[in-house]
Structure formats: structure tokens, C-alpha cells
Amino acid sequence: MSKSCRVLVLISGNGSNLQAIIDGCDDNLEADVVGVISNKSDAYGLIRAHQNEIDTSCVIAHKDETRVEYGARLKLAISKYQPDLIVLAGFMRILSDEFVQSYEGKMINIHPSLLPKYPGLNTHQRAIDASDKEHGASVHFVTPELDSGPVILQAKVPVYGEDTAELLAERVNQQELAIYPMVVKWFSQGRLKMTDGAAYLDDIRLGEAGYAAD
Ligand SMILES: Nc1nc2c(c(=O)[nH]1)N[C@@H](CN(C=O)c1ccc(C(=O)N[C@@H](CCC(=O)O)C(=O)O)cc1)CN2
Ligand SMILES: NCC(=O)N[C@@H]1O[C@H](COP(=O)([O-])[O-])[C@@H](O)[C@H]1O
């Protein structure tokens, strides 16, 4: 029996993706969520962690604190858990270059757009405003440049004429809950790596849209 992959999840809010990963660990994910760290003390994801007897910490940004200073405090909190994989799940802070480089190849994020389209915030409204016919979510390795790391897996949803950002966000979120645990499983199996700025699954280089099932 191989050592289970130690997963640390960073959150800021609801924690639906955290919950999906917790539920996946109970099934066949070959991983354990060993801790949850939030930058918001009122994040509902902290409740979810407590309900599943998972240790939690809060690292709340101080007023006038630089991103480097925040990152140093966050690294200290993370070190307690000795994670194999850091999962950003609705984590809403831009991380410093120094912080990200400390965990290169072992930190992933789920972003609510079909990257490279719409890095940053308000992705659903931007897709609606652009009259896009499809939208979706992307799981990617985290690099210093925001939402620009190598894409691992994407899920697409249709955009309907009557869509609001809220309706579209819900449709995208349902897909997120399906794909994020899959990527965590791939990593826990040792199948997923980042080398020279590219993502590889089973030593096959993944394209701009990540893994494409044939
Ligand atoms: N260096 C990196 N940091 C982060 C990445 C990344 O790829 N590289 N991914 C993001 C996740 N994310 C979108 O998926 C994201 C999170 C936060 C923001 C942002 O503009 N945050 C603001 C504060 C917004 C708020 O508090 O509501 C900020 O930090 O000033 C954009 C994209 C996680 N970090
Ligand atoms: N830029 C990061 C970002 O916008 N992440 C988004 O936060 C939402 C809430 O996640 P949660 O329910 O897992 O907390 C998710 O849709 C995720 O894509």
C-alpha cells in the first residue's frame, strides 16, 4: 500500500471544491486532506473541514502587509502539514512569486474559465458580455503569472442567451466538482508532473487545453 498523498487545501469561501475532494478521498482518491487553510475566518469551507474532522488554520492578511510578507506567514502555516500537494480551491489571493516558486509542480488551482481566456476575476460575466457560446473551468499548475500555469484539465459548459453570471457560475461549478478530484487522483498516483513549464500526464505533454480524452 503506497503512502497516501497528503493534500493541503487553501480556501477563501464556500468550499464546494474542498467538499468534492474530501468526498473523493473517502472513495478512491488515494489521498488524504490533512489540513485546510483559509484567508477568511468566516469561510464556510472551514465548517466543512470541521465536519470531516480535518485540521484547519486561518492566515488572514494584515492591513498594509506585502504579498511577500503574507506568503512567508502562509508558508509557515503550511509547513505544519508537510503536504505532498497544495490545492487552491476558491482561494482568492494572488500569491507572491517567492511563495509560488517554493511549491512549483506541487500546487494546483481551479479557475472558472477556459484558460487562457479570462484570467483573473469576474470570468462568468466577461464570457456573457463577450457573447461566448461556451465557457468552463480549468485546472492548472500554479505559476507566478496569474492563472497562466500549464493547464491540466478543462471542462466546458454551454452559455445560454438568458444566462446570468450566477446561473453560469453554477453550471461551471458542477463541472469543477467533477474534474478537480480527478486531477488530485492523477497527482496522488504519481501520473501528473510539471516539467520545464509544461504539464505531463503519464509522461505525455499536455496541450494548451490540458488532457484531451480521445
Ligand atoms: N501567483 C499566483 N497566485 C494565484 C494564482 C496564480 O495562478 N498565480 N491563482 C489564483 C486563483 N485565482 C483565480 O483562479 C485568483 C484569485 C484571486 C485574484 C485576485 O485578483 N485577488 C485579489 C483580491 C480579490 C478579493 O479579495 O476578492 C488580490 O489578491 O489582490 C485573481 C485570481 C490564486 N492565486
Ligand atoms: N480565481 C479563483 C476563483 O474564482 N475560484 C472559484 O471560486 C469558486 C468557489 O469555489 P468554492 O465553492 O470551492 O469555494 C469556484 O467556482 C472557483 O472556480
Widest sheet, order of strands: 3-2-1-4-5-6-7
- CA-based shape: globular
The major pleated sheet works out as: 7 strands, mixed
- Radius of gyration of CA atoms, rounded to a whole number: 17 Å
N- to C-terminal distance: 31 Å
CATH domain topology of the domain at 1-103: Rossmann fold
Number of strands: 10
Protein architecture, described:
The protein is of the alpha/beta class. The protein has a domain at 1-103: Formyl transferase, N-terminal domain (Rossmann fold). 33% of the residues lie in helices and 25% in strands. It is built from six helices and ten strands. Strands 3-2-1-4-5-6-7 form a seven-stranded mixed β-sheet, covered by helices on one side. Strand 2, helix 2 and strand 3 (56-58) form a beta-alpha-beta unit. Helix 1 (16-27) packs parallel to helix 6. The radius of gyration is 17 Å and the shape is globular. The mean pLDDT is 96. Residues 11, 13-18, 45, 89-90, 92, 110-112, 137, 173, 176 line the site of glycinamide ribonucleotide (GAR).
